[in-house]
TrEMBL record:
Keywords: Cell membrane, Membrane, Transmembrane, Transmembrane helix, Transport. This is NCS2 family permease. Its main location: membrane. It comes from Pontibacter aquaedesilientis. It holds the Pfam family Xan_ur_permease. Belongs to the nucleobase:cation symporter-2 (NCS2) (TC 2.A.40) family. Azg-like subfamily.
């Protein structure tokens, strides 16, 4: 173990790595509940998605530790699960089986891009302001979903959207949101997961005092059960290759690629996990692991897997090697058998997590030069159109198209690389396909 993970070289110990793995797990464990709560809205069984979430998180995190030897956990990504449910399935009207097929093919493409280093061309081609704006837009989208799931925001014929009634359920959500915000502000380990548990306990009496407030009413369903493997190999590989599904695959690849790269770069810079050239350590293997996670997700029944920025808390606790990721990955396994317990958690308990995850994701907007209008306007459009259109892909498409239009209009069209023009072409193609 010492020689494989190079513990002495990284100035760490087995004890430190184990504690760091536990810390990272507590920071990411909320996905075990939140991912099924989102994907179940696409018509998928909660227990099946929970099993898939655990399998993806376990195998991918352990692979990250053993193969890439980085202290980074991998699990189904926030934003990607929202796109899966609300843009692909509910927005475009495709079945969740076809959406799982799109996840699988996006993983294969991502893997090829990583293995053949094509990712370098793509990364250099995408303007940084658009990257930051898309990340922020996805954060706003997730926040909107959280408020809607809690009933805090509702449809209003007069104003399109409005505030819901301050019912006992909504007040419970607001209490959970405040509690979770306080825990996060005070740097409590596992703050999001702890907030979900405490809000669930607070919501339990609602089903008895106000039976219409929580649907379904929270009832004890038992502690453990056998894993639900019903979603394994349920993907539709053939129909997911239809021309009309290409925008979905493209959006999965694009979002997963840049989410992963930004995570690797950010964590490497924060913890000095760099190679002799100053690049993120073992980035090619890390990206390959991320791609395998997405491919595996399609096979077992989940939205794409991605590297988790929450791994930073484990790194801050001293984690420096792949042993941290192996420990964190192993800790997911017991939750294969806790589906009855976790399925009791209502939407008003996971909604605060969605709202606050959005707060984390809007941070990159400070890196955008808002005084350089030919870049600020496309970034702004990409950011706001994601929540306003309820579609991540629409924000991406119009962000790129407006970027190209303004660059050409200001005589700077030649500054755009051929790769970026290819991406713009795909955006135009996506819009054409939507009209048929």
């Amino acid at each position: 173990m010492e020689s494989y993970f190079e513990l002495k070289k990284n100035n760490t110990t087995v004890k430190t790595e184990v504690l760091a793995g536990l810390t990272s797990f507590l920071a990411t464990a909320y996905i075990i509940v939140v991912n099924p709560s989102i994907l179940s809205q696409a018509g998928m069984p909660f227990s099946g998605v929970l099993t898939a979430t655990v399998l993806v998180s376990f195998f991918s995190s352990v692979m990250m530790g053993l193969y890439a030897r980085n202290p980074i956990l991998v699990a189904p990504g926030m934003g990607l699960n929202a796109f899966f449910t609300f843009s692909a399935v509910l927005g475009m009207g495709i079945t969740w089986q076809v959406a799982l097929g799109a996840v699988f093919w996006s993983g294969i493409i991502f893997l090829l891009l990583s293995l053949f280093n094509v990712r370098t061309l793509i990364v250099k081609a995408i303007p940084r302001p658009l990257r930051y704006a898309i990340a922020a837009g996805i954060g706003l989208f997730i926040t909107l979903i959280g408020f809607a799931n809690a009933g805090f925001l509702v449809a209003n014929p007069a104003t399109i959207i409005g505030i819901g009634a301050l019912s006992p359920a909504v007040l419970t959500f607001l209490g959970g949101l405040l509690l979770m915000a306080i825990l996060i502000t005070r740097n409590v380990t596992g703050a999001i997961l702890l907030g979900i548990v405490l809000t669930t306990l607070a919501a339990y009496p609602l089903g008895r005092w106000w039976a219409t407030e929580v649907d379904p009413v929270i009832t004890w369903q038992g502690l453990v059960s056998a894993p639900d493997f019903s979603l394994i190999l349920q993907l539709d590989l053939v129909n997911s290759l239809q021309f009309s599904i290409f925008p979905v695959i493209f959006a999965f690849v694009f979002t997963d690629l840049f989410d992963s790269l930004s995570t690797f770069v950010g964590l490497a810079e924060a913890a000095n996990l760099t190679d002799e050239h100053g690049e993120p350590r073992n980035v090619k293997r890390s990206l390959a692991t991320d791609a395998v996670a997405t491919t595996l997700a399609g096979l077992v029944g989940s939205s794409p897997g991605t590297a988790y920025i929450e791994s930073a808390v484990g790194i801050e606790a001293g984690g420096r090697t792949g042993l941290t990721a192996v420990v964190g990955g192993l800790l997911f396994l017991p939750f294969l058998f806790l589906a009855p317990l976790l399925s009791m958690i209502p939407a008003i308990a996971t909604a605060p997590a969605l709202v606050l995850v959005g707060a984390f994701m809007v941070r990159p907007v400070v890196k955008i030069n808002w005084l350089k209008m030919e870049e600020a306007i496309p970034a702004f459009l990409a950011m706001v159109l994601i929540p306003f259109t309820y579609s991540i892909s629409q924000g991406i498409i119009w962000g790129f198209l407006s970027w190209a239009a303004l660059k050409v209009a200001t005589g700077k069209g030649r500054s755009m690389s051929p790769t970026l023009w290819v991406i713009v072409g795909f955006c135009v193609l996506a819009l054409v396909m939507q009209s048929y």
